[in-house]
Every structure is written in structure tokens, then in C-alpha cells.
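Our working data are protein records whose layout never changes between entries. An example says more than a description, so a record of this kind follows.
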Amino acid sequence: MSREFTMGIRLNYFDNDFTRGIREATRNTNSFRDGMAQATRSATGLTSAVGAAAVALGGMAAAKKGFDWLIGANADMETYQNTLTVVMGSAAEATKTLAWANEFAAQTPFEIPQIVEATTKLTAYGMNAQKTLGIVGDAASVMGKDIMQGVEAVADAQTGSLERLKEAFSITKDDISAMAKAMGANVFDNSGSITDMKGMNAALFAIMEKRFKGGMEAQSKTWKGMISNVKDFVGTTGRLMGLPLFERAEKRLQGFLGTLDQLKKDGSIDHFISQAHKMGAVVGNEMAYAGKVVRAAIQGIWKVASPIINEIRTNWEKWQPVIKTLGYSMAVFAVGLSGVKTALTAASIAMKLLNVTMLTNPIGWIILAVGLLVGWFI
């Protein structure tokens, strides 16, 4: 009966300083390479996370822009419609005025929302926007002001405050007084108060028209003016496209508000609030009970440990040798473990030395050769 015999050997050799240096350099190079790879992976992960966050934020911003373009513009127009209806006392007149404002805005360097807001405010101040807004717009265009700044300056003048007119258009009280006298009116008394508002406005708009006429037309042909007209076109397109969506959303919102009112009337909301309060009370009670349990456990532990601590503190001279003995015992035990580890390490080194000695001895090579032959033929 044949048997299988396997003999294994392990060759060991001593490294010299050169080979150890080469191996150490290789390990350091590999460590550096692994570190760079890890850094690359971390950077890639961070880049992916930042990219995902940027995409999410971009999506949110795009959704907000889309909402404003389709829904928000219609909501703003509805607000202007209601304001003009109240000020003018007629929904039909308000609709006509808004239609004029939209058509007028397409011929100016100002955007439709600005024109509509300016129209609404001038009307609220008791002025005919269709007759005065063009003059104010010319002045604002020439002086590089926002049209609402011009409207507010004219509005302040209705209360006797002319500072904004001076800041925006360099028109002073003396300028208005001189133009009014040239038109056959005396609009200020000796104290400087306005005595003829209609005459004051006529003189003011005459000055503005004389100085700034044609300002909007010239500004509309500039780069900024043309960009403004493009924005008007895009905004109007979005508003008209979103009008059906806005109307459906408004109806659904009205229905939702009706549902909330019904829930309030039938007591459902009050019941929900009451249940929430009860749940909060239950959670609070459970947390309070848990706190009491933890506090009781700590007090119990302290009740047991406190006499021991006080005894050791009071009779330290008696307990000191015992504690020191325990400390020494733990130290000796640690030293013993260290000694066992050292002995095992020494044994391992001795076995390696034995292997090397055997292989550097001719007898060792003879034993190896015999073992190989036996393993080959058996």
C-alpha cells in the first residue's frame, strides 16, 4: 500500500541594510500611492455629493422660476386688477387700463410689471395714468431712474414734498413756480405751500415734457431697452400660457379653503388639536417617568457606593495598603503578560535561526534532499 508523503520547507535569509532600505522605500511608495488613491476616491465622492446638491438646488430654483413665470405673474396681475377696480370704481375700466398698460409697456424700456404697478399707483393718486405715465417714463429714461422712482417723486409732490423731484429729475420749487407763472397761475403762497394742485401738476408735467420728451423711445433702441422688451415678451408668453393653470389652481385653492372652513365649523380641527395636546401630555408623562427611573437608579447606585467611598476616605491609612496591593498585583499581572509575549517572540526568533542554521549546514541540505526524494518516489 502506497502512502503519500509531503515534506515542506521554508527558506529564510538575512536582509542587509540595502535590501531593507529598498523594501522600506517600496512600502512607502505603495503607501503614498494608496493614500493618493484614497484621496482621489474621497474627492470623487465629495464632488458627486456637491454635484447632486447643486443639481437639487438648481432644480428647486428652476421650479421656483417656472412657478413665478406661469402662476406668479397671473397672481400679480390679479392683484393689480383688484386695486384698479377699487380705485376706479369699475371692473371694466380697470380691465381697459390694464390692457393699455400691457400695450404701452411693449413700447418702453421698462418691463410690464413695472408699468402696471406704476399705472396702478398713479391712478390711486388721482392722476390719469394714460396721460401722465409717458411723461414720467421719459424723465426716468433720460435720468437713468427706475420708473417707480419717478412715480413716487410725483406722488410726493402731491403732498407738497418736492425733495424727490429734485433728487430724481433736478426739478425745484422755483422751477415749478416759474413755469406756473408763465402759464398764468400762482400755485404757491408766501409760505411755500401749494394753493393750486391742478396748476402745480400742469406746470410740473410741462417742465418734464419740455426737458425729457422722447426719452423712452431713445432708450428702447439701446441694448438694455431691447433686452427689456425681450423680457416683456417672455413674461407675457408665460403669463398667457399659465393662465388656464392659474385659474384651475385658484379654484382648487378655493375648494381647499372651503374644506378647512368646514373642518373648523364641524369641530374637526378642534378635535385634532385636542388629540395632539393629549398625545403631547402622554409623551411628556412618559419622559418624566423615564427621568424618575434614571434618577432613582443613580440614587440607588450612589446609596451603595457612598458608604464605601466614605469608609475609604475616613480610614485611608487602613485601606491604603490594600489598594496598593491591588495595584501592585495588577501591575505584576500586566508584566507577566508582557513576559509571555516576549517569550513567544523569542521562541519564534529561535525557530527562524534554527531554520537558517540547518540550511547553512551540509547535513541540513542532505536531510532536505532525502526528504524530497522520499516524497517524490513514495
User: Anything to note?
Assistant: Confidence is low (pLDDT under 50) at residues 5-14, 373-378.
